[in-house]
Amino acid sequence: MLPDQYRNVTDDQISAFMTEEIQRYTGGVHEVEGCRPDGELFPLEVAVEELPDSWSMLERRRSCRRVFIASVRDITERKELADQLQQSQKMQAIGTLAGGIVHDFNNILSVILGYTSLVLDDKANNGTTRENLEMVMQAGRRARDLVEQILTFSRRSDRAKERVALKPTVEEVLKLLRSTLPATIDIQQSLADGPGLVLADSSQIHQVLMNLCTNAAQAMTTGEGVLTVTLEPAPLDDAAAMRLGLPAGPYLRPKVQDTGTGMDRQTADRIFEPFFTTKERGEGTGLGLSVVHGIVSDHGGAITVDSILGVGTEFLVYLPEVRDEGQATEGAEAGQTPRGTGRILVADDEIAVMKMSEQLLSRLGYDVVTENDSRRALGIFRKDPDAFDLIVTDQTMPGMTGEKLIQEMRATRADIPVIVCTGFSSGTTLERIVELGVYAVILKPALAELLGRTVHEALSTVYAAD
After folding, report:
1. In terms of domains, do 165 and 45 share one?
2. pLDDT tens across 407-464, in order?
3. What is the domain extent for residue 26?
């Protein structure tokens, strides 16, 4: 049970320990390192007490020696639970912190997505420039979806599922990987044709595939190897379904395979445990694959791992296939943004967001007045409330919130339609805003197309009778 550094000791050292060092351990509980038969170090809790004179006095006098009693306890599980508690507290703190940072982060994303969309509208940008900008838009959308998941985590709310075509999702992941992974990693793919639909949250499926592929790339520690991604139908009969704990039926099976370092059986058995990681301390949370496992399970599927140390690892994901009914989501947001007319007052304390909204709406034919101070915006409106057809306002602004601004404007003109754009607000705040009778609430970072369509719909609906 002793680690190597304690095994080769001389009699003199043992004597010195018995007369001096043991005093430090007597009368308390101490943590030391032990060594398992396979060489693995593990934490031990040691308690040492010297037996009093009343214990076997005759024997002690005969031997002229002191007698100690010690208890040794393996505290590996307790330490792991303590680490998990610490990680859990960190995650709870992240959830609490999320609301504080999301507003600013969403404003930044709004600027990135908005201005990229404006540049893409310029027909002069073709070829490589357009492809690069479209990659920026894709990354921005994924960042937006990630923020939504952070908010979902902090609120413990559910996300809606819809029919998702898996093949385009896999292709998008591979396209992103090819632009980020070193060229020395050969990415191979084999994707079956066909509808390939699953009922899913598209951003979470993207997260699963990206996580598995990123882990596979990191497992090829030399920076070289082959990453293979396949997608194929995998109907499960009763026996196969029982082994996976799933109902029998049609499934789609994405597979991610690498030629990396691989894992031994003990590691592979624990790979989906929360907070378990094979990375060095500080390099990983141990949450990635446990989150992947949770997402797959939440989608009614299963995930398996097969690994050989020194050869590589293979992950198989099983997702229930759904029939081709209705339109499938492929992750892209397209469509011509309708043009319109009308005078719009835009209030947002973030100047970059405000100017982006002004450019977008002006291009679509609207007359736009902007103000980055909510109190000054109220003053502009009060001077001539009938001059405006629509208000677009942020919620979180210094001096006066969007909610208060709406109340003040409605006191002057009760029928003015309002669209609220917000980076983050609590559920209670959003409920109060909706109760004010606003036309729509748009969560930042809103794509330019969404803002343009919502403005057009609001003006068309509210003034349809005119």
Report:
1. no
2. 999 999 999 999 998 776 555 566 788 788 888 888 777 667 788 888 998 898 877 6
3. 4-74
DSSP 230-278: EEEE--B-HHHHHHHT--SB-EEEEEEEE-S----HHHHHHTTSTT--S
The domain total for the chain is 3
- Inside any domain, residue 146: no
Tracing tokens 């003040």 back to the chain, one arrives at 408
* pLDDT lower than 70: segments of the chain: 1-27, 51-67, 84, 87-100, 103, 123, 125, 148-160, 274-287, 324-335, 424-430, 446-447, 464-466
The CATH number linked to 356 is 3.40.50.2300
Cβ–Cβ < 8 Å for 21, 13: no
Residue 328 has a CB neighbour count (10 Å cut-off) of 18
Contact, 207 vs 295, CB < 8 A?
Answer: yes
Q: What angle do CA 175, 143, 323 make, to 5 degrees?
A: 65
Q: What is the pLDDT of residues 62-109, one digit of tens each?
A: 555 666 777 888 888 888 777 767 756 665 666 666 666 776 777 788
Confirm if 368 and 342 have CB atoms less than 8 A apart. no
361: left (phi over 0), alpha (psi -120 to 50) or beta: alpha
Q: How far apart, in Å, are the Cα atoms of 60 and each of 16, 63, 65, 71?
A: 20, 5, 6, 21
Helix (H) or strand (E) holding 85: helix 76-120
Predicted local confidence at residue 16, as pLDDT: 57
Cβ partners under 8 Å of residue 6, min gap 6: none
DSSP-H helix ranges across 121-222: 127-155, 166-180, 202-219
Q: Could you give the angle at the alpha carbon of 165 between the alpha carbons of 453 and 113, nearest 5°?
A: 40
Same domain, yes or no: 28 and 171: no
Find the Cα–Cα–Cα–Cα dihedral 188, 264, 301, 193, rounded to 10°. Answer: 20
Question: What are the E-state strand segments in 234-388?
Answer: 251-258, 302-308, 312-322, 343-347, 367-371
